[in-house]
Design goal:
By secondary structure, the chain is of the alpha+beta class. The protein contains 8 helices and 7 strands, in the order H-H-H-H-E-H-H-H-E-H-E-E-E-E-E.
Length: 162
């Protein structure tokens, strides 16, 4: 084998090992929701509302994320209506009501009842004395970490006072 071939093979091998040792980039809130597979409606709504870049931003954010089944509980036609361009402002208000600034883990609120300010501006009632409820929705899975916050899965779409 020629010296050049040996050098190329050694360089490629070293590069492969170096790349393998780099930490994988963690997923942001949006990418985490997409990869979960149970938030297709939420992701479509975030896209329609123009909030993708915000939720991919630095954060940190705490998101109470309704599943596709949670959206299916809404009256027939509600989601389709909210996704129309003329209803973008209302959609943004609903989605930002599901977001709290900062990264709040379940251990931070365990055993407590409180009101927390949403990004939308209204407060969300949180009761973590027996499980966790947010405005009547049950947190079915807590503490899904993303690189810019945390997702808590909820079984119902919560609505601001509007």
């Amino acid at each position: 084998m020629t010296a050049l071939k040996k050098t190329v093979i050694a360089t490629v091998t070293a590069a492969a090992f170096a790349l393998a040792t780099l930490p994988a980039k963690a997923a942001d809130i949006v990418d985490t929701a997409v990869s979960a597979g149970s938030f297709k409606t939420l992701v479509a709504a975030v896209q329609a509302a123009g909030l993708v870049e915000t939720l991919k931003g630095e954060g940190p954010f705490t998101v109470f994320a309704p599943t596709d089944d949670a959206f299916a509980k809404l009256p027939a036609g509600t989601v389709d209506d909210l996704l129309k361009p003329e209803n973008k402002e209302k959609l943004v208000a609903i989605l930002t009501y599901h977001v709290v600034p900062g990264k709040v883990m379940s251990t931070d609120i365990a055993g407590k009842e409180m009101e927390v300010a949403s990004v939308q501006g209204d407060t969300i009632d949180v009761n973590a004395t027996s499980g966790v409820m947010v405005d009547g929705a049950t947190v079915t899975q807590a503490d899904i970490e993303a690189d810019n916050g945390v997702i808590h899965v909820i079984d119902t779409v919560i609505m601001p006072g509007m």
